[in-house]
Amino acid sequence: MQSHAFYKQRLNLFNNPALQLEYSNRFSEILAVWDEICHTVPEEWWFFDDEKTIPTDIQRNEMYQQLTYYQNINFWEQI
User: Fold this and answer.
1) Domain locations in the chain?
2) With 70 as the cut, is the pLDDT of residue 15 above it?
3) Cα dihedral sign for 11, 22, 77, 75?
């Protein structure tokens, strides 16, 4: 974690409930339009090859569920 680009910024976020609320609100706004976002992703991003014959193994629903983890009461302490 110490090699992460924003490692030094973590204290600003982890010790600031107002900033955490702001980010939580952003997450909520983004997830409210998740399906729209997924539909705007270029089709070729869902495939490994240019011919679009080998689909990626990206599961949109699983990704969405992971992103909702910010709603967990311990989220800010666990990241």
Assistant:
1) 8-78
2) yes
3) negative
